[in-house]
Amino acid sequence: MKPIHFVWLPTFLAVALATVTVNGANDQEKRFTLPDAAFDAIVKEMNANIREELTAQGDPWDMRLRSSALMIALATQHRMFHKQGDARQLATMRDAAVRMARAIDFDTGKRNMDVVRKQAEILDAYPQVKENPEALMEILKLKGIFEQEDIDFHFARKRKQIGIERELFAITRATKPPPMDTASEKIALTGYKVALLAEMLREFDDRVRPQKVNQRKEWVAHATDAQYVGWQLAEAANAKDGVSVKSIATRMLNACSECHAKFRCD
Ligand code: HEC
Prior knowledge:
mainly alpha, Four Helix Bundle (Hemerythrin (Met), subunit A), 2 domains, 10 helices, binds heme C
């Protein structure tokens, strides 16, 4: 073999490998990030929930305010982390969501409605949220500010809310795959929400009962599973692949119920 081979072959391979890695990373990155339109839709939906609670007659529903704020906090921090969008605007929104949750005490239900309304107003200006120059540019640990119940709220059927669990049932129990021309956007959003919620759920492994402490790793594994299946569901819905959507929804419900079988006691 002439020396030139030693030069060219490895160089070629190195370039080829580097290209694969770069493309791979890009694909992965794209796969696990929230597209602009999905982010907008999630913020809009949560703002509508909050507005509805604050304008309805009677007592606003604490848990719906808190859990809507959580979803905004998760979505904004996800984008801050992945350096998508306007970081300062995102940080301003995250701060408002956190302040709203802090103004509604989870344990006592005591709340400061002036603070809640002020934060709601800031958030509801989206996409024209005025940047706060003093917004904290760091990613905050949301656990502690928000509770597992704020996560679960999105999964469950509550009053008028159908809840993610039943949305998934509707897909898996239907004989045919869902009609992608009308349902794909909503299903993709469900996928993104599950991905964001499950990522945070993972952190609640310290809440497992004392007799299950040695199973904390399993908790983390189940939550991670649900998180990844969330991104996959969104991907299949965006590709308008109804057959995959149906099978991934089944996998997702399995991921949920495998964890419930081990850790849920109600
Ligand atoms: C890592 C474990 C884990 C995963 C993954 C998980 N759950 Fe749960 N879930 C729990 C536990 C534990 C509870 C009970 C919480 C409690 O009682 O405090 C619960 C509670 C619930 C509730 C009841 C909430 C309420 O307020 O009534 C629903 C509904 C639910 N989960 C749906 C889902 C769905 C849908 C998924 C999948 C997309 C999922 N869960 C994924 C552990 C998990």
